[in-house]
């Protein structure tokens, strides 16, 4: 239970964000040894177990529904002043391969006004998991917001569409491997895009040209390119919100 991990805060934030596609918490209690026990429904699959290599480049209807479910969860979570901070396929639970999907594991989530959350402008940057971590925390921004989760969701959507991780994460603690991988895809950012981040400018990076999304996500339908490109942006302020994502054409016509 070293920061940012905190199970007691997790219980509070799960209650605060209770909604259709956040995993419900039925009970929480201390056992005889003093351990905090969280009681939740059993969901047999996580998204990482359900992701397969698409054969046609078209995301299945069931996976579109699952992605829509998680954007709906995040729209509500964010409206409650909460940042999940660890969006990744293994933290998305499924009732079956056809869904529905639920956002789980709020163990390192941040909640505005919560007693055990860091001050708003001094958040912990050692959050997220390897290749899903957003640029702002890689470059020392302690005032990051909900756009942190949206970058990670862009990475998840790309992974669902292709069957592989969007960026090379390297081993834990090797952020430069991840930074290099992102730059080789999105191009080396300009000072205007990154200049306000505390650790930008401390290292001089090789200049990479931006690659197009047809090359980064080969064989994938245009709606997926369009959604991912709206989420995976250097500048956090330019990323789609969860509510924006729910209106995307990729989700049109779903029941």
Automatic annotation (TrEMBL):
This protein's UniProt keywords: ATP-binding, Kinase, Nucleotide-binding, Serine/threonine-protein kinase, Transferase
Domain of life according to the entry: Eukaryota
InterPro entries: Kinase-like_dom_sf, MAPK, Prot_kinase_dom, Ser/Thr_kinase_AS
Protein kinase domain span: 1-251
GO terms assigned for molecular function: ATP binding; MAP kinase activity
PROSITE patterns xrefs: PROTEIN_KINASE_DOM, PROTEIN_KINASE_ST
Chemical reaction(s) catalysed: L-seryl-[protein] + ATP = O-phospho-L-seryl-[protein] + ADP + H(+); L-threonyl-[protein] + ATP = O-phospho-L-threonyl-[protein] + ADP + H(+)
SMART domains membership: S_TKc (SM00220)
Protein name per Swiss-Prot or TrEMBL: Cyclin-dependent kinase
Organism classification: Eukaryota, Fungi, Dikarya, Ascomycota, Pezizomycotina
